[in-house]
Amino acid sequence: MPEGNSSALDRKLFLVGTAFFWISLYIYQPTLSPYAKYLSKSLAMVGLVAGSYGFTQLVFRFPLGIWSDKIGRRKPFVLSGFVLIFISCIGLAMSPNAWSLVLFRATAGVAASMWVAFTVMYSGYFKDNQAAKAMSMITFCVGLGQAIGAIGGKIADEYGWLAPFYSGAGLSVVGLLLMLPIKEKLKQNRKPASFKTLLAVASHRRLLIVSIITSLSQFAVFSTTYGFLTVYAEGIGASKSHMGLLIFVINACQTTAMLLSGTLIAPRLGYKATVGTAYFSIAGVCFVTPYIQNLRNLFIFQGAGALFRGLAYPLLMGMAIQGIRQEEKAAAMGFFQAVYAIGMFLGPAISGLIGNAVGLKGVFLCAGGVYILAALMGIAYLPKREIKQVL
Fold this sequence. Notes:
By secondary structure, this protein is mainly alpha-helical. It has helices spanning 3-26, 29-40, 43-71, 75-93, 98-113, 115-123, 131-149, 152-159, 163-179, 195-202, 205-235, 240-269, 271-288, 295-321, 326-358, 360-381.
């Protein structure tokens, strides 16, 4: 097979494998928080279970990026991600209490830390000035996988709380088999970045700003959508299937926006306007949510918020590595993802305490305020258009 055709096939298989990666990570997401509440009877513990996923990503993502850059390989990390998902899913299914859920959800966070290698390996198939396009394509598969994973709610309704965990384990094996034959595009005559260079990359002003903005967004989304939204939905009458359908609508809307973001919306509006408008709009959704008392309106508003959120994330991810040398991209992406993992950890952990103290209304109002801060930072500090200089 000609090299060009082989490379095209690898890209396609990689995208399909990426979708399976996120399906297996998120198939139990619709029911995880309600299940943690069922085992623990505590919103603070629900927040700890959700936050453990971000905590291990905070610890592992940047070192994994540096390690990947040092050895010049991404594929071993990609494959190990699927193995860790399998372990975490089996562990979650066999957990006797909420503390065990914390441990194995944290293991899922280690698996998700391998996303650093996914993004850099896939971006290696493209020229540097196509970074936004590459990130839009791969984040589309992320959203697609998460949307399909919402079927876990229906699976739980039909077969019980534990069925989505076992389903995730099986799907991770499928994803691993898809990724095995893919050839990694290796850079010839590469020189690993020195520690001094890595520090310079990590301290670059634009990378720091983009990482902080994304961390604020992750604080809010893991407090609400991937934290307490399904608990709130259960409180106004949602079944496990409703929870799954709600997450499906959210991820489907977000995925659609991700696909359009780098190819249609941002080229016309610019980075600054797209991110600012997106986060102001989601803040409004957060402020309205605790006053919604029927499922139809909850679906409508959460779907609208997801559309706006999907516009911002691929742009921020693309800016994290755009203009950075190939041998330093994994470190830059690892730093970016480690910083936004701070939000993934602190969001649910703090929101669990807020929920215990003042109820779920406080969780959503806090998230709305954080989105406003992210919007203001985006408007103040992001570039208007594509970045072309090399760091």
